[in-house]
Amino acid sequence: MKAIVIPKPNEIEIREVPMPEVKEGEALLKVKYVGICGADVASFTGNQPFTTYPRIPGHEFSAEIVEIPENDRGLKKGDIVTCNPYFNCGTCYSCERGFVNCCTDNRTMGVQRDGAFCEYISMPVERIYDGKGLSAKELSLIEPFSISQHAVSRAEIKKTDNVLVIGAGPIGLFALLAAKQKCNKIVVADILDNRLSLAKEYGADAVVNSKTQSLEEFTKKFTDGNGFDVCIEACGAPETFLGCIENTAFAANIILIGNGKRETSFIHSVLLKKELNVHGSRNALKDDFINNIDLVASGKADVMKMVSGVYDMADALDAFRALSNNDGTLAKLLIKIGD
Predict the structure, then answer these.
(1) Together in a domain, 118 and 166
(2) Does one domain contain both 20 and 126?
(3) Do 123 and 179 share a domain, yes or no?
(4) What does the alpha-carbon distance between residue 45 and residue 54 come to, in Å, rounded to a whole number?
(5) 172 and 235: one domain?
(6) Are residues 85 and 203 in the same domain?
(7) CB 235 within 8 A of CB 255
(8) Are residues 159 and 267 in the same domain?
(9) pLDDT digits (tens, 9 = 90+) for 313-323
(10) Which of 3, 5, 172, 334 is the most exposed, fewest CB within 10 Å of its CB?
């Protein structure tokens, strides 16, 4: 079968690789569409510390079931599905307590193990989720949506809360979409007007270009000087984390989704003074996937607005280069793998 391989940073090859070995309890899947995640771009550029090479990237995908053993989940040959790509060990302290998304030996597809940018994959049946009639393109967007959905669930967001999302990349926009199901007042901040325009389309009540406008002054006006009840950080930069601390209300919640790569320095007594709750968020859980599939199927969330383009498998290098040099005009790019 054909696979998209990153042999080393800044290179993409289409290689012939062996068909996957299908073990007991697994299904053979024909991959349909795969989204390019920020982690995939980091692997391509050599900025992903957990990636070894050569590597088949990809963990945001949809697929058709080709072969599957009898199961109690109603899954059958021909179904269009998506899957949970975070492989946990099952025996560490986190797994024993049910926090499988926080497995100490987590192996995410496309990072610590080969991913879905290939024509066929094998998957344990318990990791496969019924697509409930969604299109293959929509299902390839469920995983990144679930990352944000899980993050939003880390704090109890109330209907009357004011929420600030800092960062309007795909994960930030999905966080906006998830938070919209819980409250009515959401502001999105970014430094790129193109991304803020998309945030408006997704229902942001207001947007702020924090490069040209004071976020602190905006916060004072929007919240009557109180600060935001919830701040969701979706950039991973020291400046945006500090911006969350600055713009939260006392006794507020901060949710961190952005994967930071630089040290952040601050006097931590501000967390005590404001009695802030800081929540980290990692991966997603089974319920996040299933709930999002139901949400999209109900028509309450239109994930297709996120798609900026679809590339053929042969043009994968162009897609990776486009995202590596993204000026904010691109949100999510998909690669079409199979018919």
Answers:
(1) no
(2) yes
(3) no
(4) 13
(5) yes
(6) no
(7) no
(8) yes
(9) 999 999 999 99
(10) 5
Show the domain range for 13.
2-146+284-336
Q: Return phi, psi of residue 107, to 5°.
A: -130, 95
135 closest CA partner among 207, 71, 63: 63
For residue 204, what pLDDT is reported? 96
Average model confidence (pLDDT) across the chain:
95
Residue 149 host element (H or E): helix 142-153
pLDDT beyond 90 at 178 = yes
How far is 35 from 332, CA to CA, in rounded Å?
7
274 and 199 inside one domain: yes
Query: What CATH number should be reported for the domain holding residue 226?
Result: 3.40.50.720
Q: How far apart are CA 118 and CA 20, in angstroms?
A: 10
Stated pTM of the model: 0.95
C-alpha distances (whole Å) from 28 to each of 20, 78, 115, 123, 133 are: 8, 11, 14, 7, 20
> Domain ends where: 263, 280, 297?
280
- Burial (CB < 10 A; 0-12, 13-18, 19+), residue 212, is exposed
What's the pLDDT at 48?
83
Quick: pLDDT tens for 271-307: 999 999 999 999 999 999 999 999 999 999 999 999 9
Count of structural domains, the chain? 2
Q: Which residues pair with 206 in a beta bridge?
A: 187
Fill in the DSSP letter of residue 14.
E
Q: What single string gives the DSSP state of each residue in 292-323? A: HHHHHHTTS--GGGGEEEEEEGGGHHHHHHHH
Given 280, 297, 316, the domain boundary residue is 280
Using pLDDT thresholds of 50, 70 and 90, give the confidence band for residue 327. Answer: confident
Closest CA to 244 of 151, 129, 106: 151
Strand 228-233 and strand 162-166: pairing?
parallel
158: nearest Cα among 183, 128, 187, 181? 183
The C-alpha atoms of residue 94 and residue 237 are separated, in whole angstroms, by: 27
Q: Is the domain of 165 the same as that of 142?
A: no
